UniProtKB/TrEMBL annotation, chain A:
Upper lineage: Bacteria, Bacillati, Actinomycetota, Actinomycetes, Pseudonocardiales
Keyword Transmembrane applies: yes
Main location: membrane
GO cellular component, one term: plasma membrane
Protein name as annotated: C-type cytochrome biogenesis protein CcsB
Ranges annotated as spanning the membrane: 13-31, 83-101, 113-131, 143-161, 173-201, 228-251, 263-281, 293-314
Pfam families reported for this sequence: Cytochrom_C_asm (PF01578)
TrEMBL record, chain B:
The encoding gene: resB
Location of the protein in the cell: Membrane
GO cellular component: membrane
Protein name: Cytochrome c biogenesis protein
Membrane topology, from the record: Multi-pass membrane protein
Transmembrane segments: 73-97, 174-193, 451-469
Organism: Gandjariella thermophila
Amino acid sequence: MTVNTTLATYSDWTYATAIAIYVLSMLFYLAEQAFGRFARRSERVEAATVGGSGGGTAVLDRPAPPRVTPAGRPLPERLGRMGVALTVLGVALHASAVLTRGLAVHRVPWGNMYEYGSAVCLAAMVTWLVLMRRFPIRRLTGFVLLPIVVLLFLGGTVLYANAAPLQPALQSYWLVIHVSAAATSSGILLLPGVASLLYLVRTANEHNPRRFARLAPRLPGADMLDRLAYRTTIFAFPLFTFGIVCGAIWAESAWGRFWGWDPKETTALVAWVVYASYLHARATAGWRGNRAAVINVLGFAVMVFNLFFINLVVSGLHSYAGVNG
Amino acid sequence: MTGSRIGAVLALLRNTWRGLTSMRTALALLFLLALGALPGALLPQRSLNAPKVGQYITEHGWWGRVLDKLQFYDVYGSVWFAAIYVLLFVSLVGCLVPRSVEYARQSVAKPVLTPRNLGRMPHYATSTVDASPADVLAAVRPKLRGWRAVEREEDGGARSISAERGFLRETGNLLFHFALLGLLVAYAVGKMYGYEGQVIVQADGSQFCNSGVLNYDSFRPGLRVDGTQLDPFCVKVNGFTARYLPDGQAESYQADVQYQSGADLETNTWKPYDLRVNSPLRTAGDRVYLLGNGYSPVFTVTFPNGQQRTGHVQWEPVDQQTKLSQGATKFDPPDVTDPVLRRQQQIAVTGLFAPTAVYDGKVLSSGFPALTSPAVAVQVYRGDLGTDSGRGQSIFSVDHQMIADGRLKKVASQNLGLGQQLRLDDGTTVRFDGVVPWVNLQVSHDPTQDLVLVFAILIIGGLVTSLTVKRRRVWVRATPESGAEGGGRTVVEVGGLARTDQAGYGEEFTRLSGELLAAPRQRAEQDPE
Ligand code: HEM
């Protein structure tokens, strides 16, 4: 089947526009941060820690939503809301870039690294929008957008591949199942990484108020960040496991063995083990707080490493990426 | 004295065991596993690409050799990697055994006593109602359906319910870890009793039989496989088709094969199969994969006495994009029985083959992987090919030692299109007659892979259960109000505790305690005596 070049071009433009909109919305969050020192306390979460079996149990209630001042919203609040509106627009554009790419090539839009990276970031952003509706974490959006924009930019430049049909090894329905599970879970797993990183900033500041004195007070409470990291991790982890298992099933029919220590496979396993360590750390006395967060950030690092480095530098069976082929 | 020494040894063993099976150690070992697996992704590995390892070592000098000594090019077969996973394995077993015992004990145990002071619980709510403690409990009971609950009478006419739920979480967790254990064992057994072999077959009706190790070009047996008991089957490759996009990217590979196994071997019945990249042939407990492909140029050598020899052997692609290939097709002179004489007249046609010839001056290269205008740039050697020397021979090149010794000489060098020929000084001609595609087949055998899949599915199931189920405790105590105006009124207290690290019990508790506290009141309203 031939590639619909008009649609493909359209997809490329939308992709670039989406990045631009993301950057713009980051500016709005930045402005919100710059103007807004209010609401600092209102989102603080009270924490009570009680000893229980299997370790401590953090009991956290969702805080009351910040009150809206009746006499119009203050400027930072308005800026933040505009930021959200732009983020939503960015996600819509991003989604249509992915969709049109798929339509242009008549297949799922994750057949090479460029497309895969885009899908991963889309999964992260959609999840973030969902989370934003449930938790008062709007002000973190800028921090989430930062890695996303970097990844999308690198994806669109270094990894870019022209719209093309799939090579034979990829022509399988497992591409749909395995890669969508992998992309979704990888995307979601980018979020706890950011949350844990901010958690470390926040707790460092709590121990010594002079560290990160400007940044930390604008973040939600440490336990809110911790909860965000944990919840997103345990949501994505089984999905990630499923993705790896599907990869193994596919490898069995495409490469002749279900596990062959291919660099990409191996790094996914390493990331999986790191996340398993994170979950263990959360159940181990003395490891629950900072150390668990450090492990989670490590998991994030391995995921990003797997996304980029492995495909660009190390060649394995997975490097059909259309980059170094 | 000896008694105390034995005691000391036992204590040491006990402490080692405790240390090894503690959560902290498990954590450290998991971490080591992640760390240890990483170099295998970054450094070239023998099992995946042996030539690259050699190249890496030469490029990195002493450092490369040190890494080699430390088994960094065979990470997953190395002693230290094995040490990590064996320790992890022991730790896992040591952790699972006591937890299973505890699990069994808990599964029959009643929920714990209601704590004396519920107000100390992390979650607490209270109210006073016009009902007796017995009525309160009767009203509350239906609200705790799905919880494991036990009612108890307490001092002073008070009554309480102790309820818990989320036991399934531990079930899931144990299932997960046991399945993990099972998966590791199944994987290891599969490695021991499995094998993997590769063979190149000409796609001109040639066949391959899985009857012995020697039929393979390369064969990797598991530790417990000696190659004498392979599952017999045969595969015949009748043709091969590759389709390419205009830019040379492959669109599809397809080999037209026939196979026979089991009873078909006796009756010599062939069954057809359409072998493609993502659909291996599964037969006789083995799988046959289409891994690679390439071309074998066909040459006909006409010797001065008029005798002809036609031969083709696979040439290896040096560029996967364009399928430019190199190789050596070797011929023995016909009717020469004297070995000395024969060794002076052997012929090798070597050089480059291009499926779509592109010339830069006289230099041949290939512009496209499909057979549009095949051509070869050959060097013909005559002399002793060294086939009797006892040294291993590469099928893709001539023995350079023979050239260095002057026993093999280059006698011609020329570009040939299809049907063209060249003539040697003694009148021998070499004609480029055609091209036959070849396929690289892999035969894999892994007796436990289905079992591994079952464990993998259990792992996911256990994981989902364990991560979604929340363990909660809730207690309700109804105490008759004391004092002067206490007549007939009851204080209802609800306390709650989340037993696993699952945030968000607060909201849930607020809702639950609200329901529990409202229940007696609603009941009192519905039937006011
Ligand atoms: C092969 C190594 C191991 C891996 C990959 C692994 C993985 C995991 C994962 C992913 C979880 C979280 C999911 C769940 O709660 O079921 C978990 C939980 C747990 N693991 Fe492991 N595990 C391993 C070895 C061990 C060992 C050796 C121990 C004992 C020392 C252990 C004890 C536990 C405990 C107690 C939990 C429950 C934590 C909680 O309540 O949240 N695991 N493990």
